[in-house]
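In the design runs reported in the main text, the only information available to the sequence generator was the tokenized backbone. The following block is the verbatim input for one such run; it is reproduced so that readers can re-run the procedure and compare outputs position by position.
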């Protein structure tokens, strides 16, 4: 995977210097002179890590980070800060920043931090892929199959699921077999894990009806 870095800093000399260093170590770097400039393309941005300066005209680093969070963009963010900005950097980390890097950069520390950040990015992309896959599979279920799945998720035996839904035990068993086929799983435990990844709500929130969806 291309290791893509979005470098956001209003200081052109700092950007150019950092870009030269990063490119020399195999990174692909896209430069932005402001938070606004990156936010303009953020929705379509490929997964990467963000190096974000705190002190910028217009939107500062905190405001840019908050805007990214509001958009649901969860790329690892490395906050670029000068000496004396540690308090602000800690605030940024509380808002979800991966790490802060002091200027001027210590090369080994920067590269090690980036290596860790891209490891975190891989984990987030993988988790997002699993989430999307789980939601896609769950979406194939009919309303009644989701209700039966919800009963399994709550650890209920077929008899109780049947009672709660006003169905026969044999009908519940049939729905269970069908939903497992749709989810492409062989065991109830695998179906439950998939449902948990997809974030299926609690049984009581489903308000099951007496007719099949």
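Verbatim output:
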């Amino acid at each position: 995977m291309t290791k893509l870095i979005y470098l956001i800093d209003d200081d052109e000399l700092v950007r150019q210097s950092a870009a030269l260093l990063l490119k020399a170590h195999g990174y692909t770097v896209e430069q932005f002179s402001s938070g606004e400039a990156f936010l303009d393309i953020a929705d379509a941005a490929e997964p990467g890590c963000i190096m974000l300066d705190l002190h910028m005209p217009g939107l500062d680093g905190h405001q840019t980070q908050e805007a990214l969070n509001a958009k649901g963009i969860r790329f690892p963010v490395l906050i670029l800060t000068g000496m004396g900005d540690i308090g602000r950097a800690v605030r940024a980390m509380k808002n979800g920043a991966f790490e802060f890097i002091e200027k001027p950069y210590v090369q080994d520390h920067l590269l090690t931090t980036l290596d860790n950040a891209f490891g975190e990015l891989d984990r987030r992309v993988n988790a997002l892929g699993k989430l999307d896959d789980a939601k896609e599979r769950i979406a194939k279920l009919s309303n009644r199959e989701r209700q039966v799945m919800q009963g399994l998720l709550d650890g209920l035996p077929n008899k109780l699921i049947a009672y709660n839904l006003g169905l026969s035990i044999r009908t519940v068993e049939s729905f269970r077999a069908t939903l497992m086929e749709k989810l492409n799983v062989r065991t109830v435990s695998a179906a439950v894990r998939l449902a948990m990844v997809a974030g299926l709500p609690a049984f009581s929130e489903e308000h099951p009806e007496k007719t099949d969806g």
